[in-house]
Amino acid sequence: MTTHAESKTVSDEQRAQMLKLVTRSFYKELVNYGVTQAQVLSVAGHLLDNVMQANGETKDDRSCHSQFFKIPDVIDSWGAKKRLAVHDVSILPIDASVPGHVAAWLRSPSAQESFYPRFPQTEQELSRYLVAPTREYFAIRYKDELAGIIGAESIDLGPAKLEMRKLVGDADMRGKGIGKRATFLFLYYAFMVRKFNKVYVYSMDTNIRNLQLNARFGFELEGILLEEAVVRDERRDVVRMGLCEPTWVKLFS
User: Fold this and answer.
1) Better-scored residue on pLDDT, 162 or 37
2) Do residues 12 and 127 both lie within one domain?
3) For the segment 99-125, what is each residue's pLDDT rounded down to a tens digit?
4) Of 121, 185, 192, residue with least CA distance to 147
5) For the whole prediction, is pTM greater than 0.85?
6) Same domain, 146 and 179
7) Could you read off the pLDDT of 225-239 as tens digits, one per residue?
8) 22, exposed or middle or buried, with CB in 10 Å at 0-12, 13-18, 19+?
């Protein structure tokens, strides 16, 4: 039986591993932007200055999104209309027009390369892929305009778990918080409608924004797949994060 102290130790180790990964990714990004080693040391100094000047209590990032989302906020019309909505964003089953939009969005190398493994690239392949029995994808709509897709991969009914994937493909829709609201709706669907126990995600090591976004929904680090993917001849680590239903309900109820 795992004691509270042992559980806390595991959690501390996971957080330390995540910080190490984010720091390494941040360093790589600085180098890619042409920052010299001397300038990296200067950045470290600025970070320390911010720590020294910080006032007030530190907030727990994991609970951050609970300030904006609550389970009762969801407009649940799934039984009658197959639609969930919150704050002008809704998710609903994809129709025949969606794969063409997704194929166009994925022509951007940065969009395609952010997924592990990658999506198919042609409209015909995507049409078959998105409706396969082991997947369940939804259109993301913002004020009734198509903004992206979100859905489930590797659906496993035995342990009641699935992988979540999301793409806000319309460039005009980015930066509006649509991805956050769509994520909240999908987690509502997975845990409240389908009664799944666990949702997990894969992220590339340099996608720090996604790591933070997922952590604020309650996802925790499960492991790092070292040099699992190759992007433009460069080997990349892949992070897996997981979220169980009791944790999500506790944060957002």
Assistant:
1) 162
2) no
3) 999 999 988 887 777 788 889 988 999
4) 185
5) no
6) yes
7) 888 888 888 888 888
8) middle
The structure tokens 């392949």 sit at 125
Q: How far apart are CA 69 and CA 182, in angstroms?
A: 11
Quick one: pLDDT band at residue 144, thresholds 50, 70, 90? confident
Full domain range(s) for residue 9: 1-47
The answer to whether residue 43 is domain-embedded is: yes
Q: Is residue 57 part of a domain?
A: no
* 151 and 117 housed in the same domain: yes
Q: Are residues 69 and 175 in the same domain?
A: yes
Specify whether the CB–CB gap between 202 and 238 falls below 8 A.
yes
Q: Is the pLDDT of residue 89 over 70?
A: yes
84, 184 in Cβ contact below 8 A? no
b/e for 175-211, b at 16 or more Cβ within 10 A? eeebbbbbbbbbbbbbbbeeebebbbbbbbbbbbebb
Asked whether residue 209 is domain-assigned, the answer is no
Quick check: is 204 in a domain? no
